[in-house]
Amino acid sequence: MTDPWLALEPGADPAERARVLRRAHETFTAAGTVPRPVRSVVADSWLRSARAGVGPDGTANVELTDGDLGSYRAEHPLARVMPLVRELMGPFAADGEHLLAVCDEHGRLLWVEGHPSTRRKAGRMNFVPGARWSENAVGTNAPGTAVALDRPVQVFSAEHFIRRVQPWTCAAAPVHDPRTGRVLGAIDITGGDGLAHPHSLGFVQAVARAAESQLALLAPREPAADLPELSALGRDEARLTRAGRRIRLSRRHSEILVLLARHPEGMTGDELLCALYEDETVTPVTLRAELARLRGVVGPALLASRPYRLTEPVESDVAVVERRLESGAVMAASTGYPGPLLPASQAPAVVRLRRRLADGLRTALIARRDPDLLADWAHSTWGEEDVEVWRALAAVRPTAVVRARLAALEAELAAPAGWGRRI
Which residues span the membrane (predicted)? Predict the structure, then answer.
């Protein structure tokens, strides 16, 4: 075949091809070998699916519903281009034979649109918004495989790994962030055998490129030169971006700016002393000297006194994560959390804020039961010993590695104090 991403060669008989593929699929599920003429892209996908533990009689899990789904979709970058996608693909998806679907970067379906009867038929295999159709969850399928490979791809009939999906054919193309190149998700068209045609793959590719162009036009302008931004998550020393300059702050200056950014109304000297120092013998003179040095670093125009306050709004990554959590956008909150707030800080108010933010996010992750988000937390430096997260991960992704790590953590918890430690 001239193009391995296309399902059928010109002039091929779809019915005969489907019969050949069904026999090949039966051979693979029985013996683990992939016979010809299965395309290499499909053969590789079948092997990945089997290694991920996907069974040919499985089904997709619905992970987001109702308010959670609505909040997540509203926060997702592809929400901004859905009007364009509907304009381009809507007539095609409304013909009673095809569905328009859009998934996120994890293969989770966000939108599935088309004629109600076709959606009901697809719903029997959980091809519905909120369901995870990643390759490692349901095996070979166009949106999941397109995201996994970052390539446009067709999947025809029995090329699908799960048997209940094999009556369908689909074509999908990934959509990228025009600024970073990161995969945001994929656009998919799903229907019958007629989609196994070069035109359908070219169609979704064109729509994906149009979506990327629209995202580039809609991308927010760079922050104004005089709008400060404070990055304090996952770093011991915060970074202030202001007037086009990136300023690396000392630990104490980081703590002060984090607290003042949280209190735009300002803080008195006594309030700052209590918030910053455990040692009650620290004098106001020490604090005033620190603030004077901070003015020299960030410029006198940003920091006022009586009370101590910032003279203009400062956007902090802490506030961004908090807003996302409050709106129920757990995925977006997790993406915006590179680590604990100023992890080396011992300032009492910073310690409280650090714990509150981390506890709020981990609680939301445990409640969401998203295996990818839980795995990201569990394998981070701050979550590697978080037994509650490992338990939640084991409940939704009980691999041997996860179970072994959880058993080791629980054994450590059960051991007597000091057991196994060198003295």
Answer: none
